[in-house]
Design a protein that fits this description.
Elements: E1 8-14, H1 21-31, E2 37-41, E3 54-57, E4 61-64, E5 69-72, H2 77-85, E6 93-97, H3 104-113, E7 117-127, H4 131-135, H5 141-149, E8 153-157, H6 164-177, E9 181-184, H7 190-194, E10 212-217, H8 225-234, E11 241-248, E12 251-258, E13 261-266, E14 274-279, H9 285-293, E15 304-306
Parallel strand pairs: 1-6, 1-7, 2-5, 2-6, 7-8, 8-9
Antiparallel strand pairs: 3-4, 4-5, 10-14, 10-15, 11-12, 11-14, 12-13
């Protein structure tokens, strides 16, 4: 029997007009090295791609020298996905840019149900300097709040424009309107989205939020999938990324979590262990350790380290 073709993970990046989606996507494109991305955008003209990176221009696509491909969303997202999924070798990840007035959860349905795809996460860019004012606007306020509520992960832009006291007020406000994990947009990287993050990319962040904690488990197991899901549900929402393998009755499962979205899939991939990443001081580290310890096969608690 021919092995099933691997599904390509899809990440939707949404956010209101001017929130920084395009800048974020452009940075992910230019910083990608070994990972090959397919990016569906609304307008090539808004993506400021360095001419030196462009290897080939097509009618609806731009191929980059680092292996990434941009494709415009013309008639429909589905048609653009079909076009980009034909590329060989297969891409590592697909990013869909939702328009500034779109509901990202609706766009995410393509990642969930389109043949050959699996939804990785819905990331919503939030302009830290304007979101509270926009949320009170009589015309767009409800849309901005709905976009935030639909996110698995909030990527905050323009945090450098806020004083520490304003930042604290913003986080309090976000906690009232969203159950999503929150991250400085400058820490969002391709390895992070793909689950390859070794946390080294956090080292150069200028904000004090660059301190991240990680918890590692060398070998993890659960009594059943229901048992596993109950443990995942107990993790604090501040966990930004969780990835690894859990053994259940001799079968191996790949566990992934980005923000508030988790997935559990049977896998033949080699590997053991589990790693969680979260911002320091965002939640009780002891709580994270105690929850993950339920998946630990040894008596000693999983080590926690500061990045």
């Amino acid at each position: 029997m021919r092995p099933a073709r691997p599904r390509i993970p899809v990440t939707v990046i949404g956010g209101y007009l001017g929130a920084g989606k395009t800048s974020l996507i452009n940075r992910l494109l230019t910083e990608s090295s070994s990972e090959r991305l397919g990016v569906l955008v609304n307008d090539f003209g808004e993506i400021n791609i360095d001419d030196a990176l462009i290897a080939e221009r097509g009618v609806n696509t731009i191929s980059l020298s680092n292996g990434c491909v941009c494709c415009t969303i013309r008639d429909s997202i589905g048609s653009a996905l079909d076009e980009i999924l034909k590329i060989r070798p297969l891409l590592d990840h697909v990013i869909i840019e939702a328009s500034g007035v779109a509901h990202p959860a609706k766009v995410a349905l393509y990642g969930q149900g389109w043949p050959g795809c699996s939804l990785n996460a819905v990331v919503v860019a939030v302009d830290a300097s304007t979101i509270r004012t926009q949320s009170n606007d009589r015309f767009v306020g409800s849309l901005c709040l709905e976009q935030i509520r639909q996110a698995d992960l909030l990527a905050l832009t323009h945090l450098d424009l806020l004083a520490d006291s304003q930042t604290e007020l913003l986080f309090d406000w976000l906690n009232q309107h969203s159950n999503s994990a929150t991250l400085d947009a400058r820490a969002l990287s391709i390895p992070f989205l793909l689950g390859l993050e070794n946390t080294s990319s956090f080292d150069d962040l200028p904000l004090k939020t660059n301190n991240f904690l990680t918890s590692h488990i060398a070998y993890a197991f659960a009594n059943s999938k229901d048992h596993l899901w109950s443990i995942l549900d107990d993790l604090p929402i501040q966990i930004l990324r969780l990835k690894g393998f859990v053994n259940i009755d001799g079968s191996k499962y790949l566990i992934q979590r980005v923000g508030s979205r988790s997935s559990v899939e049977a896998t033949d991939l080699n590997g053991d262990g589990l790693v969680a990443i979260w911002p320091a001081d965002s939640c009780d580290s002891q709580q994270v350790t105690e929850v993950l310890e339920q998946l630990h096969s040894r008596c000693d608690p999983p080590p926690t380290s500061v990045v």
